[in-house]
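Morning. Coffee machine broken again, so started the prediction first thing and wrote up yesterday's gels while waiting. Chain of 311 residues, entered below exactly as on the submission form.
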Amino acid sequence: MARLTLNAEKRKAIASVFQAHWEDNSKQKEKHQDAIDQYNLIRSKAKEQIEKVVRYHQPQEDVDTIKAMRKKYDRSGGEIYSDNCFYVSRPIMKVDDEGREYETQDEVHVKFDLSREFAVSYYRDELKSKGLDPDYKVKLGNDYDRRNPRYYEMESQVEKYLGFSNSSNEDASILKHKNEWENDFKLDVIGTSYCHSRQFKVDETTLNFFKMYDQARENVVKTHEQMFSYVEEKMKKLRLGLKSYKYFDQAKQLADKLGIALNESILNESSSMALSVYSPDNLASLLEDKVELTREEKIAIARQQMAQTIN
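Came back before lunch.
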């Protein structure tokens, strides 16, 4: 039997198998998921804690009074805002360069909304399942001069999916992640919409708790970056190696040594369709719509399932 010769497209397909394996079976992947789980846990506690802080400084009866006054006198009755952004602080002493003590504030910005960078890391797996690239930004590192049309295209697609940008012809009834988080948790606070204008004084223990909450949020982004860096270092070496391989059996031998399931089916055009067009989400949609698959499509899906069983 003739040996299967590789080309650029086939090398790319092979590389994707290695990448998926390293992403799904690494300690960095576990750490990223652990960071998400830890954030979810402390977020629920942070909601309870911030409500205690706010209501200690702004009792519910005061809030209700302003609401009644606004109902009677409109904005002249006072300022009140439903917010998910808060600043907590406590006074501390510091020493300047000349050795003089001065009092300042140790503060934490407590946020319950969805920021862009955090959202991409938090929903990384979901974005990948939709055919989007959640690593489009971390690939740059800090070198933003490397931004190209592909970068801006993916940025636009990701932000549209998450809800940071919307088209005029979109169905407004579809609730995207950004709006879900905006509406997930809010408190009525006395004051304007300017978050930093409100400083809620807390003790050291409470302040440190909210520092932990902020750190948990940052860890989701940090572990995403670490996972990408770990896989990318391996991928750089792999790409160089694959360029020197002329035949599929060479890549197969490498995969076997690394415990990675690799077979020729991923190089077939029909199998490539199965990996993309027939992803779990898309396939479910097709099946729900009673779409009749062709014989070639059924074979492609069977091959994909066989490969996943081996994995």
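Strands lie at 80-83, 85-95, 101-111, 187-190, 199-201. Going to sketch it on the whiteboard this afternoon.
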